[in-house]
Write the structure tokens for this entry.
Amino acid sequence: MKEILAYPASYWQTMYEIWLIISIIIYLVVFIPGLYFLIKYRYKKGINEKAQHVKDSKALEVLWTIVPVIVVIYLATQSFAFYKVQRTAPEGSLEIKVTGFMWGWEFEYPNGKKVYSFFNSVANPETNAYLKPEEVNDMFKAYIPAETPVKVLLTSRDVIHSFYVHPAKVMEDAVPGRITHMWFQINKPGEYWVFCREYCGTQHSRMAAVLKAVPKEEFEKWLNEGIQVSDSNTSTNF
Amino acid sequence: MAAVSYKPYFSAGLKEWIFTTDHKKIGIMYGVTSLIFFIIAGLSALAIRLELFQPGLQYMSEDSYNQALTIHGVLMQFWWAVGIWSSFGNYLLPLMIGARDVAFPRLNALSYWFFFAASVLALLTLLPGNEIRMLWTGYPPFSLNENAGPVAFYALIVHLLGASSLAGAINLVVTNLTMKAPGISLKKMNLFLHAFLAMNVIQILGVPALAGAVTMLLMDKYFHTAFFDPTRGGDPLLYQNLFWFYSHPVVYVMILPAFGVISEIIATFSRREIFGKTSMIFAIWGIAILGFMVWVHHMFTSGIPDWVRIIFSYTTVLIGVPTGIKIFNWIFTLYKGSIRFTTPMLYILSAIFMFLIGGLTGIPLGLPAFDIAVHDSHFVVAHFHYVLGMALTLAAFGGFHYWYPKYTGRMYSELWAKIGLVLIMIGSNLFYFLQFIVGLEGMPRRYADYPPIEVWITLHELQTIGSIILGLGLFIAILNLIVSTKLGRKAEDNPWQSPSLEWLVPSPPPPHNFDKTPHMPEDWDPYNYEWLEKQYKK
């Protein structure tokens, strides 16, 4: 079996495959008869100059009402089942608070440690070009433990933002005055993007952050080192 | 019905155009305004595509990119996708029901001039200092921010357009219900008329919600009320509910008339009546009613309770059923027909098969388990560009070509129209299909710049090439329509041999439409092609 990179992306993947197969079947069910009729019943001089009268068919109308109803109800119910898992953080999740602002993200860990990522921390200071996640300065990276579910409590300081974890294929809006939630788990250590997915003005496209998934022990070590330094430094900057 | 001598449109003076209450002239004015704004919005789309060709900002700043997005969205939605149907409705509806004009001709002129005033305001936002950068959605609290631009402009534009739509919709509904010529019953109305009836009813029910939303926004920004501002106890999600309560049904305002055009053209060129006409009518009204029960799928990730999302996921996917019924019936209209592959037919066949892709990719967006990963990604953008950018636009262009001889009395160039279509199809499929894939890869919407992920770069490059081909195709198609008004050969009154009433008057129709009120005989039906042949034999 293929190793699963991230949760709840695997549920999305299954939903995607189910939908894709059904859609291709429906497309062919419409396209093939359509093409056949277009070729067979095209106007030909002397052979097919006049259309034949065809009576409406109640049976057909009922058929293509009932079958689609069953298909879409099935899809919605399947989605319901997956969605419950996608929205419910497993027990023992690490809980972090994420606050969006124009334009950047604040990550707050249970012990009070904070990490800030700003729109210019994902850009090359000289050329202003968008960086790759590995090239971003380590102090702007939000560390998370690999193979551990992370629950995110989201809010915003100014306008609506949206927190989208690229590998986990999951997002939720950060709404000022509300606390929303989501969860994800990344299994493979590495560096991954987080993007803002709700339009929030000039630097919307730079409102990204890097998640660094590391083994659990390394994460614990990082979490407990230099709390005050990182916190006060970035706070005054901000 | 005998032809009388009358003045064609071209010879009418400026004064005659400005003060006209003739539904045909107003229809043409709507069409021209709509097309001009379609071109402006198209050019802003090209600017967006060029900027996305490579990561980094090459041609414009973030702010001008966001302004281009706003212009493209607002103009395409309100002026093209909604506005163009005002043109078709005004011109054709009275002709199809055998009426002299609409029920309230002066109100009709007022509708157009409201639309025109909104157009002027929209052009003023292009001036420096007036830029609006809050997108066509204008979500607070962002729109309450300085960065968003003058909200008052936007609110006034929406109010003018809303007044125009409401007056126009009431006018066409009353015209339809009260002015049908003897012999044309609800049952004998063609599907174009049914679609326009449903579409106008949606407008009447929906516009007040949007008008209310932008008014509250305006008051929040300038009069310090607190409907949407969370720092003073308001709720930004209230705006989203009000906004989408109109702005989701409005997509059916856009697409139902396109369905009407498709039905007319596919029946005419298959030379037989629409298959399952009764269930088609039920499907139109099914879409109109269900359309008001699905708006929350635009807010699936906005922090509303999960159980609400589940309920709206069921209503959302159910709307696929009446839409499917329409597609199946169109396909079976081809069955045992005698199909003519004329230009309008090719346009609307393309529209049907592109709509099918747009529809099938709309279903997963109604499934929260799928939507959670692609909400506000390029997947959504591709979905509604298949529906509106392709199906609707192809249907509208199919309609332009189909009724062209009626509007102008001349024929367009078949060759150039077909070249245009081929380019449009190649360009837009290259463009929008890859947009699905870049969306599935995670590319967020409304990004002026994006990180150097290799797949994204390749996909964006190909999309930009597609968009240029698409632009070329549209340019050829539009140019052909313009040039042919002078150079096209003279058209007959009924070149497509349709028994629908608009084809039984001369091309272009005289100012009074009908010499006397037509009395349609018992055996007449807008899709009864044999009836027409019998008339010729007589």
About this structure: Confidence is low (pLDDT under 50) at residues 1-5 of chain B. The CA atoms of residues 13 and 391 of chain B lie 36 Å apart. Chain B has 17 helices and no strands. Chain B has one domain: 17-537.
